[in-house]
Amino acid sequence: MNYRKQPAAVYSLLLAIIYLAFISLGLPDALVGAGWPVMHQDLGVPVAFAGIITMIIAAGTIVSSLASERITRRLGVGVVTAVSVGITAAALVGFSLSGSFWMLCLWAIPYGLGAGAVDAALNNYVALHYAARHMNWLHSFWGVGASISPFIMSYALTSGLEWPGAYRIVGLIQVALTLALVLSIPLWRKVNPVAPSDPAEAPAAHEAETSGRDVAHVPLMRVLRMPGVLLVLTAFFAYCALESTAILWASTYLVADRGVTPATAAAFASLFLLGITAGRFLAGIVADRIGDRQLIRGGFVAVGLGALMLALPLETDYLALIGLVIAGLGSAPIYPAIIHSTPVNFGPRNSQAIIGVQMAAAYTGSTLAPPLFGAVSTLTGLWIFPLFLAVLVVLGLVMSERLNQLVAR
């Protein structure tokens, strides 16, 4: 099929706006964790109450992810993105004005609702209209945003602005981005779908030119009954579960089970996140040549190798520390590649609905897996950390390979 040439100026301008939007998606994500040691004292609540805030945000995100397909088809990606970022901006400003814990809980509702809809809408739009390299680089820019916010919180705490100042700064950044997104709304329909870079991934691409145009809503139950959907949801759940578990528990495992010093463990735990960010930049360089399926397969294998290196009972800890970095690099391409392959695997007509459900599965895995590991490790000991990761790797790899076989038929 002949895909029309992209309008270069519109293509580049909108891509720049989407990059900024992905940074904005990451900006709020680390604020609660970075500021909570001070916030809980000012609000007079226990440290454990942070979990209540994050659960409310996660619940709102799951709900809006599931509703994103219907909303996006009705309003369009540009409007949904602008409105969602605006809602998030309002919630962040609301956080900055909150003087009690119940007010934080109240503002956490729009905080989560705004994040889920824009995440699903943007990911589907990029999967349809931009090459695989941009999907990886865009998700790397999410990591940039998530890395910046703790520095904003640190600045606010040391400059006398206190934690409300950090939320106010990020909220105002989101307000400025909302204005830019409102002005960009006419651009969103001017970028044409792109052809898949991998010939092996082409069977469904013929539908791309009509995607998003006068297509009927796809009900949730119909989505779940589509062949292969439960496979990709399980793979996505497994990946996000292992990522969130590694981020939260890697440092504790290295200190408590391996005897690594807390400073070294913290440094290498941060390298896991930096590995994801850097790995997505690197994956973007080769993504168009090797294709999404190879990126997913290679990513899971690399994470499995990293988990094995973590588990080896050697006197030296260097191999375990290197294994954590390898696990981060391996994790990098899995999330964006699963998203980018969705229109190819299930057809662009269904991709918005399926990506919305994928986002819900992702947030469910990220929310449930870390406390589940905490409960399991309480019974077994922290030595089970590499095994826990390995089980999730096997689950994700098996489900993704079964999906490949199903799509190839």
What is the helix/strand order?
A: HHHHHHHHHHHHHHH
Fraction of helical residues: over 70%
CATH class of the largest domain: Mainly Alpha
Radius of gyration of CA atoms, rounded to a whole number: 21 Å
The fold-level CATH name of the largest domain is Growth Hormone, Chain: A
Number of domains: 2
Low-confidence stretches: 199-214
Number of continuous helical runs: 15
- CATH homologous superfamily placement of the largest domain: MFS general substrate transporter like domains
Compute the separation of the termini in Å: 21 Å
Taken as a percent bin, the fraction of beta residues is under 5%
The major β-sheet equals: none
**Averaged pLDDT, please?**
84
The total of beta strands comes to 0
**Which CATH architecture of the largest domain is right?**
Up-down Bundle
**Alpha-beta classification:** mainly alpha
Overall shape: globular
Describe the fold and architecture.
It contains 15 helices and no strands. It is globular. It has two domains: 8-188, Up-down Bundle (Growth Hormone, Chain: A); 220-408, Up-down Bundle (Growth Hormone, Chain: A), CATH 1.20.1250.20. Helix 1 packs across helix 6 (132-158) and helix 11 (292-311) runs antiparallel to helix 15. With 409 residues, it is mainly α. It has helices at residues 8-26, 31-43, 50-75, 77-96, 101-129, 132-158, 162-184, 220-225, 229-256, 262-290, 292-311, 318-331, 334-346, 348-380, 385-408. The two termini are 21 Å apart.
